[in-house]
Amino acid sequence: MDELVFLKLGGSLITDKRQPRTPRLETLARAAQEIRTAQAAQPELRLVIGHGAGSFAHVPAKKYGTRQGVRNQPEWLGFAEVWWEAAALNRLVMDSLHAAGLPVIALPPSAAITAREGRVQVWDLAPLKSALSAGLLPVVFGDVIFDLARGGTILSTEDLFAHLARTLLPRRILLAGIEAGVWADFPACTRLAPLITPQNYPQIAAALGSSNAADVTGGMASKVQGSLELVEQVPGLEVAIFSGETAGNLQAALLGKRVGTTIRAAA
């Protein structure tokens, strides 16, 4: 397979997480155009796109505690509400990507994955692999999942990417949010950490912060910790955390330029 890259459009980038159900449509449209331009410049690039739930699904997910489990009828009704909100945002994302001329196809996790204790137990990847082989761009997203132990749960885009990475072995995972990268001096936010490895992580860990808005799948600390685990498990993998707010950053990252913070197994 040609170079494979996973790209996440973070919920903080594509929605206003301070206001329920508030998409940032201009940002979505710009991001879609940058993806299109990068693909035109590098036709061998193969992408799996994911996106966060932002101010759509995170709000009911927090209200009902869906990630922790679903045990009674009110919580199952909440499970369905979270699904509805996640699907509503996915439709907007797909509209933007399609309008940019990208050959995207959505693969909703809730219809394909069974979890156990919040981890993927079963996921038939044949449709996703077929989409990649056909030159299409599969799109996944944070979604509700039926769980053999918890009844129901939520898997974030990072959860999905982690499972996919162990099978598909991408070269890079790009996490585009609104922060310029991982701040080495949070909350002052004046100095970025350009590189994080297992060796220097202890010096950076104290400065990591969580999300300021409703977010049931963890903030920056969770992203960095999960990324460190993954780069140690997948040979040669690099993870980039960067701002998609700055015009051109997304395109540059897709074309291999280092932006924001890079996470890898060794310096």
Question: Secondary-structure blueprint of this entry?
Answer:
Layout: E1 4-9, H1 11-14, H2 25-41, E2 46-51, H3 54-64, H4 73-99, E3 104-106, E4 113-116, E5 119-123, H5 126-133, E6 137-141, E7 143-147, E8 151-155, H6 157-168, E9 172-177, E10 195-196, H7 201-205, H8 220-233, E11 238-243, H9 249-254, E12 261-263
Parallel strand pairs: 1-2, 1-9, 2-6, 3-6, 4-7, 9-11, 10-12
Antiparallel strand pairs: 4-5, 7-8, 11-12
Could you describe the 3D structure shown?
- By secondary structure, this protein is of the alpha/beta class.
- Helices cover about 40% and strands about 20% of the residues.
- It has nine helices and twelve strands.
- It has an eight-stranded mixed beta sheet, sandwiched between helices. Strands 5-4-7-8 form a four-stranded mixed beta sheet.
- The model has no long low-confidence stretch (mean pLDDT about 95).
Which structural class best describes the helix and strand composition?
Answer: alpha/beta
- Radius of gyration, whole Å: 17 Å
CATH fourth-tier homologous superfamily: Acetylglutamate kinase-like
Order of helix and strand elements from N to C terminus: EHHEHHEEEHEEEHEEHHEHE
Q: What is the number of helices?
A: 9
Q: From the 3D coordinates, which CATH architecture would you assign?
A: 3-Layer(aba) Sandwich
The fold-level CATH name is Carbamate kinase
> What's the pLDDT, averaged over the residues?
94
The gross shape turns out to be: globular
Compute the number of strand runs. Answer: 12
Unreliably modeled segments: none
Query: How much of the polypeptide forms β-strand, as a percent range?
Result: 15-25%
Overall number of domains: 1
User: What portion of residues is helical?
Assistant: 25-40%
Strand order of the largest sheet: 3-6-2-1-9-11-12-10
Largest sheet: 8 strands, mixed
